[in-house]
Amino acid sequence: MKALTYRQEEVLGYIQLHMRENGTWPSFREIERHFGFKSTNAVMGHLRALEKKGYISRVAGQARTFRINCELEDDSIPANAINVIDIPLYGAIAAGYPDGVETGGEIGRMQIDAETAGIRHSRRSFALRVRGESMVNAGIHDGDTVIIEQCLPRDRDIVAALIDGETTLKRFIQRSDDSPYLKAENPDYPELYPVSELVIQGVARAVVRHL
C-alpha cells in the first residue's frame, strides 16, 4: 500500500478509534465536525484518497458506505513479552507559536515499548519532532521526539492540536464552562484560545530525548 499523508493518517485513525469505541463507522458529519472541514465534500475527498491507496473499500450496494481493509491490531500479547510496536515518524510540530504548515507523509519509522510509553497497542500512534521551547517546563525540549496517541484528551493532558488551522504542542486545559484552551509550559509564551476551532489530534504519551 502507498504511504499516507499526515492528515490521511489522522482521518483513518479517527475512523478506527470511533469504530473501536462505538462499534460503528462515524458519519460524514461526525468526521467533518471532528476535523473542522468546511463540508462533507472534504470528507469524501479524504475517503477517496484512502480508497485509492487501498486502506478502505466501498461496500457493494450501499451508497457512501465503506469498510476498513486492514484489521485493528490485537491487544493480546504473551505475558512475558515486550510489547514493541512500530509507529510512523512524521515531520515537526511547533512547540512555540502555532505553525500553519502541515507536515507531509511519513519520513521514517520508530520502534517503541508500548508499555513504557503508556500507549495502547490497539490505538493508532505516531511520532513528531518537537520544534520550539514552549514546553520546556514539562520536560519537552527543542529537538525531542514526542509519541502521540490518537484518543480523547483529559484536562491537563499535553496534546498535539490544530487551533484555528495551525498546529502546536501544548497542555490542554478544560474549563468549567466547557470552553477549552491551550497552555504553554514556559512563561515566555501566551495561553492560546481558539477563535473558531480547536481540534485535538492526539495526546502526548512519551518523550524521546534528543542528545
Molecular structure report:
With 211 residues, the protein is an alpha+beta fold. The protein folds into 2 domains: 6-68, Arc Repressor Mutant, subunit A; 84-208, Umud Fragment, subunit A (Ribbon), CATH 2.10.109. Helices cover 20% and strands 30% of the residues. It has helices at 6-22, 28-35, 40-52, 114-117, and strands at residues 56-58, 66-68, 84-94, 108-113, 125-131, 145-149, 158-163, 166-173, 181-183, 198-208. The strands form 2 sheets. It has an 8-stranded mixed beta sheet with strand order 4-3-5-6-10-7-8-9. The chain has a two-stranded antiparallel sheet with strand order 1-2. Strand 8 and strand 9 form a beta hairpin. 31% of the residues are buried. Mean pLDDT is 81; it is low at 71-82.
Secondary structure layout:
Layout: H1 6-22, H2 28-35, H3 40-52, E1 56-58, E2 66-68, E3 84-94, E4 108-113, H4 114-117, E5 125-131, E6 145-149, E7 158-163, E8 166-173, E9 181-183, E10 198-208
Helix pairs in contact: 1-3, 2-3
Defining key terms:
211 residues, alpha+beta, Arc Repressor Mutant, subunit A, Umud Fragment, subunit A, 2 domains, eight-stranded mixed β-sheet
